[in-house]
Amino acid sequence: MFRIPLGDWVAEIINWVIGALGGFFDGVSTIFTGLYDAAEWLFTTPPFWAVILVVAAVAWLAKGAGLALGSVVGLLLIVSIDQWDNAMQTLALTLVAVLVAVLIAVPLGIWAARSQAVSTIVRPVLDLLQTMPAFVYLIPAIFLFGIGVVPGMVATILFAIAPGVRLTELGIRGVDTEVVEAGNAFGATPGRILRQIQLPLAMPSIMAGVNQIIMLALSMAVIASMVGAPGLGKDIIQALSRTDIALGFEAGLAVVIIAMILDRVTSSFGRARRSVRGARPAATAPAATTAPAAANV
User: Fold this and answer.
1) What is the largest CA-CA distance in the chain?
2) Spatial distance between the Cα atoms of 71 and 56, rounded to a whole number of angstroms
3) What angle do the packed helices 245-296 and 232-242 form, to 10 degrees?
4) pLDDT per position as a tens digit, 39-97
5) Are 108 and 102 in contact (CB under 8 A)?
6) Residue 61 to residues 17, 206, 260, 268, 280: CA-CA distances in angstroms?
7) d(Cα 217, Cα 137) in Å, to the nearest integer?
8) Model pTM?
9) 96 near 76, Cβ under 8 Å?
10) CA-to-CA distance for 234 and 245, rounded, in angstroms?
11) Spatial distance between the Cα atoms of 134 and 155, rounded to a whole number of angstroms
């Protein structure tokens, strides 16, 4: 029976990439390991109450006392079930992966919005990333980076990056063309139009993309523990292998608490930016309406 050896071709390509670009991947591994170690030190070295106070302050700025109180209660619950260190390791991995994903997704989305050719090339790649099963990302990551936190981080970035690119492109393309044309009429450069018109107006969509990146990264960070990434995922995998309902519930509950806090904070910042943007035209409206009246007098 005729069969195309597609898997063998992919394996040969991976082997060639490892041999030709081994130094590059070693450098990437060193950078990612350093970023993760710094983030882990930042979250695990201070006492838990100090981290909780910082999170509560950020939640207060994002949405007010209700979110701050809920964050404190949730984090204290994590401490009470002895999952604090694992939760902070998962949070460190998630935030580093989110930082790298956002640094790639936002510029790529802007480029795709400004170039139809780039958008045409990027779109099928994003479709592939979003439809591929999550576990598949772990296979090339293991071959390229070995076992540990780095392959889990790389797989998390690949799994989570697509919504950030799509929503950034959507937000930039959704800016009213008349506003952009007004900027061109006043002699603004393309860079200034991007910084002062398109990005501020597209910020709610971009923040929604960041929110989706965080949620997907957190879900993938648990799966990444299958290749040696530390954190709550290790306890969840142990609970599955030993049928330990208690351990699985506690680790899963810690993941849910972290996800809820990150989701509420990022979505609140996005809504705050949208409210500020909507208030600006209302603030300028009285001045615009009084001008004709003054002219008539």
Assistant:
1) 91
2) 6
3) 140
4) 999 999 999 999 999 999 999 998 888 889 999 999 999 999 999 999 999 999 999 99
5) no
6) 46, 20, 16, 9, 21
7) 13
8) 0.82
9) no
10) 14
11) 8
